[in-house]
Amino acid sequence: MTLQEIAKLTLADGSPVKAEVSCQVVRSRENVTKAGKPYLDLEISDGTATEKFKIWEDSDAYESFHDLEDGDCVRLDGSFWRNQYGLNVDRMRVRRLEKQEALALFAGSPERRAALDRDWADLSAQVEAIRDPRLRLLGQTFLKEHGEKFRRTAAARDYHHARRGGLLEHTTQMMRAGAALETAYPALNWDLVRTGILFHDCGKLWELDYPAQGFASPMTTIGELLGHIVVGIELVNKLWRSLEAAPEFAAPAQPPREIVREHLLHLIASHHGQKEYGAPVTPRTPEAWMLHHIDNIDAHLEMLAQTYAEKTQAGPGIYDYRRPLEGRAVSPLPKWEG
């Protein structure tokens, strides 16, 4: 069972859930209550969700958990239940995962591995299909040099696609949405839009990266001081300048390469849409507006999907509130089956 499934079940009615789960210890700290009673503060993750709970000194599991360190991979077997103070565990047994088991944990389920492989193939094909040779080479070089990091990075820390591989999922789905919209708006420069989709969140590779074997995305100085938009602009400029001697860049072509670079940088700078949401500038071109709305659509549909997967219903078809959505999510209308 996954932590996401355990969370859903324990939130539903508070009944204990007997389960086994493989996970990583994100954080383990010794602590004491005001009355001096020792306990362990634990945070665990399996890539589907993150949970926190306490192990008290008088628990049978205290000694087993006491020896665990941050980053250890374990198999937990016990009874999970939830009250107003959060998640609780009873009759918990723990064992460390073997090396191959840990590698399988970080790789995800066979279904998830297959889905991410499909996403990578689709994304690579979309980059190969870019007709402007300068933008195509830029995208190919980025995937070649940073592909491994890209495949494990999250798209956000909390709100949407906040998991290993989340940025790949988000970017590829945006590419698919763009391909569908191209037939409706053929006048746009879709080479530019596709390249903007690829690079719009590329700064998150340094803001929201995961270790090769880890479910915790550490805070980074560059992420805090600059943020992913500024880092992304810097990366694209660096890649662009490194490729200017290539034949694709050297040949005279229209539009001029410097104008192309400026428009691509504008897409990265404006993709949040509004300055109050962190955009240095607002969108000024059709391509910039298209990128912003595709990004926003995919992010919001993912947040709704996560709400349906994680939250319980406060009423028939009405889900408990999940930030940052406006109001409670409601079950979608089923498709016509006449």
What does this structure look like?
The protein is of the alpha+beta class and 338 residues long. It has 2 domains: 3-102, Nucleic acid-binding proteins (OB fold (Dihydrolipoamide Acetyltransferase, E2P)), CATH 2.40.50; 108-302. The protein contains 12 helices and 7 strands. The strands form 2 sheets. A 5-stranded antiparallel β-sheet has the order 3-2-1-4-5. A two-stranded antiparallel sheet has the order 6-7. The two termini are 36 Å apart. The mean pLDDT is 93.
What is the helix content? 40-55%
Annotation, overall tally of beta strands: 7
Poorly predicted regions: none
How many angstroms does the end-to-end distance come to? 36 Å
How would you describe the shape?
elongated
**What is the mean pLDDT?**
93
CA-based gyration radius: 23 Å
Instruction: Give the structural class.
Output: alpha+beta
The tally of domains stands at: 2
Please provide a brief summary of the model.
With about 350 residues, the protein is of the alpha+beta class.
